[in-house]
Amino acid sequence: MMHATGTAKRLALGLGALVLLLAIASAAAIIGSARIHRGIAETMRREEGVRLSLELASAVRDQYAHQAHTIIIGDGSHLGFYAESRDTVLRLTRALRQAADRPEERSLVDRIEAESGRLDRIFRDSIVPAVLRGERQSVQEEHGRAQLVVTHIQDLTQELVSRFEAQIAQARAGADQAERRTLAVLVAILVAAPLVAAAVSLAIGRSIAVPVAQLQAGAARIAEGDLDTRIEVRGAPELVSLARRWNEMTAAVRDHQEQLVRSEKLAGIGRLAAGVAHEINNPLGVILGYAKLLRKKADGALAEDLAVVEEEALRAKHIVDGLLDLSRPLPPPSEQVDLRALAEDVVARLREARLLEGVSAEVEGEASAPGHAEKLRQVLVNLVRNAGEASGPGGRVAVRLRERDGVAELTVRDSGPGIPAAARGKMFEPFFTTKPRGTGLGLAVSRAIARAHGGELAVAAAAEGGACFALTLPTAPAAARRRAAGGAKP
């Protein structure tokens, strides 16, 4: 689950971006609709105020008209009609006060109401009594006052209408602006949404589709048997991790296959050695014995020829012995071997046999491990002798020993030309050799002995040049290791 959220994050971000655009578009549409709705509602309220203002102006004119009829007729016959018009003015004034929601508008309505009351008082308190008494002069004077009040009411009403109309225009302008702004936002989002979708698709394609295609192509090559294929993927972390695991699996399969091939090869050699080694050893022994006997009696060219026969018979016997070593299983180690003493003894014996002539050989460090001393000696003889031959006169061979983490490590380094990288993977294969007269069994037998002891023998390039062979052995017997492992389990 280390990278389990990489692709999920990409998908979530992409879909989240699209959902966010949709949410913005929806919010813009809702907000714009709300603004337009408020503008329409405000316009309707103001239009209602205009209508009421105009009706009020008309009702005031009716109120004045009934006053004029009373003056002209000269009696109280129109007082009932006047009362109705007065009630209409009061009703419209109350309705207009509810429609006016701003202080200046309410102030105008209050002034209109006050002037209407003043007009009513002039009529009831002054004009009607003067008409009934027949005082024409007084009637004319009061009628002039009433005209001035009516004119003032008309002016106030017109001002109120103008205010309502200005607010209607402002509300309509706000609604139009909200509509244009909402439309612009929606158009921008409609243009951006396909671009975002394309970018998300492209990103997902690059991070998922392309790596999947690379994985498929790599898997096809591996299915065809190319186990050296490495799948290189860039994109989603999960697919990169999958490609890395796939490469590790392929490498493990390749190594396992190589081990199986080596095991089959060794098993085949072992079966061959077990079947014919004894039969070959008998005639080789006879040939070697007669060659030595005849060599003692012969001289000159014949003695030299017999020496060659003896040498080749010994070489054939060494090959057969090597094959037998590959096929013989080793019993469990029975003694603790001092690897420092064993290495010094091997170096000393090789010097006595003049196999390290002109070569500087030194042993450093301490280590010991359970094992078969003679078999481990055979491994060291092979390693040190090969190192001496690779170094040549004037060369150096260094044997280093150390113990750490329950493992004894013995390394043999030489100052020779080293081992080509292409040959390192074949160094432990039977019959593979880089020497002109080698049998190719020494290192194969040595690795088999190391593994029979529960250890390993590996080769690497030395840091300062030459070759380096590392022998690792467990410092505890296998039974003790099993007991320790069993005791460590919860």
Automatic annotation (TrEMBL):
It is found in: Membrane. Keywords: ATP-binding, Kinase, Membrane, Nucleotide-binding, Phosphoprotein, Transferase, Transmembrane, Transmembrane helix, Two-component regulatory system. Its EC number is 2.7.13.3. It catalyses: ATP + protein L-histidine = ADP + protein N-phospho-L-histidine. Residues 275-477 form the Histidine kinase domain. GO terms for molecular function: ATP binding; phosphorelay sensor kinase activity. The chain crosses the membrane at residues 183-204. It comes from the Bacteria. GO terms for cellular component: membrane. The keyword Amino-acid biosynthesis does not apply. InterPro entries: HAMP_dom, HATPase_C_sf, HATPase_dom, His_kinase_dom, HisK_dim/P_dom, HisK_dim/P_sf, Sig_transdc_His_kin-like_C. SUPFAM superfamilies: ATPase domain of HSP90 chaperone/DNA topoisomerase II/histidine kinase, HAMP domain-like, Homodimeric domain of signal transducing histidine kinase. It holds the Pfam family HAMP. Residues 206-258 form the HAMP domain. PANTHER family: PEROXIDE STRESS-ACTIVATED HISTIDINE KINASE MAK3, SENSOR HISTIDINE KINASE. This is histidine kinase. It comes from Anaeromyxobacter dehalogenans (strain ATCC BAA-258 / DSM 21875 / 2CP-1).
